[in-house]
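Re-run with default settings, no changes from the original entry. Doing this only to confirm the output is reproducible before filing.
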Amino acid sequence: MHCDTAEERNEIMKKVTDFIKQHKVICSCVVILALLVASVLLFGWLGVWYCLLLAAIVGIALTGLKQHGMLKIIGIILLLLILVSNVLPGRGENLDRIGLLDTELNYLSIVLQNFSYIFLYVLAIGGFYGVLSKVPSYKKLLDNIVTKVKPQGKRFVYITALIFAVVASLTGMTMPLFIFVPFVVTIIMLLGYDKLVAFSATFVSIVVGYMGGVFVSFLDPNTYSMSTYEEFVGVEEKLANTFPKLLLLFAGVALLIYFMSKHIKNVEAKKVKYELTDNSELLVTEVKGNYKDIKTWPLVVILSLLFVIIVLGMVPWNTLFGIDVFKKFHEWLIALSINKIPVIPTILSSNLQAFGEWNMGSNILASYVHLTLVLTITTVIISLVSKMKLNETIDNYLDGMKKVFPTALLLTISFTVLVFAYNNGFIEGVISGYGKFNYGVSSLLAFLGCIINVDLIWILIGIFTPITKLITDESIYSSVALLFQGIYSIFMLVGPTSIFLILGLSYFDIPYTTWLKYIWRFILALVVLLALVTLLVILI
């Protein structure tokens, strides 16, 4: 009897399923009508608007996320923010409703006005590699490196991951280091590894280094001075968490190497469904002329100097270590004059910042201006040294910019999420409404805040600051600082609005869904590691 009942239920379910498949339009209309009626009964005629927003969100989701996945997810987030703004009170405990056309009429102009520096920085990276990929010495340099490390390919991948992580930890840099990521990714892929391994050894290792960053610093938007996470939350000693961060750093790198090793073995055994081996966008032109006569040392010197200059400019030597030699030299250089006419301000600019102060000033995104300038000058020097014709240089530069233009555009759209969320401020109301600090709930709110506040500066203002104000026990400040740094790092790896992640996935054409399928186990391990180290700091 039980078997017959089960068979009857299965038969009924089959008939219902077949009916829905055959009458999709009718069923969809019925569902929409039911939602409309329910919305009107609950919210009045505004319910129709809410229902249409939900229908749009579901419609975008049903189209699938394999193509243009991040763009669709950002679109869903924007629609959800519009919906939330009609339900939850914003900053000031009043409803601050966001209209659908506010994106074009208000917020997009704010984004272009305030965040165009990052847009130009991404275009500069594209132009740089557009020129570099056509330089014969670049092709030979890649070949030389690949030939030398080929016998020890795996070891090279693992050492690369360690180097990127250590550099990120000691300098606190993420976006500036991306300048060198395409170069190293090309080498790893020429060694025969897929994009996911190459991306992990570079991009992911940078984020792991940031999570365990001993000297991570940023411009505190509350004080407009350089600060560490420890100083931000109220710890007097700016390097209080050195040992826990080193533990996070090396344990994180060890987990990453294990994770990459396992993926490589699965690829070799053909046990994965998402191996990405297409490297057409990384190919460089064939070398013309006598290959042996091409010298690579000038290019090596230029790239090395580029790295040194970026490190000197981005690391806050004076505020972090008390080293003021660069500041004094800058003051002397700016004051240098001939016949009472200042040389540098007259010929170049009076707005150039000293080494160690690129992150400082009234414009909190000024570092991108300096990075773009240095990268552009480097591109010109490379073209001159390689004797590339002017028209050819311009064409190659524009080709590189065209390649990254969709990436830059996607970043612009992601900043629209920030403007939506920050101007409304509903998440701050949720945090203050909760009314207390709790490691679990506060961590979830912090991660959610990272997704909608997008960039660290506004995450600090709109998320971490209100959470910190709820802390009444000063003894947990160190653990909270470590937690904030870790949460932001995890967001950089998986957050659909993460600037760093968007730049990486879009540049290397890695689908967001594929990335999540690949990285989720590692993320889970990182979360556990962060929780354990945070617990260790609490107990100590």
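The longest helix spans residues 390-424. Strands lie at 218-220, 225-227, 337-338, 341-342.
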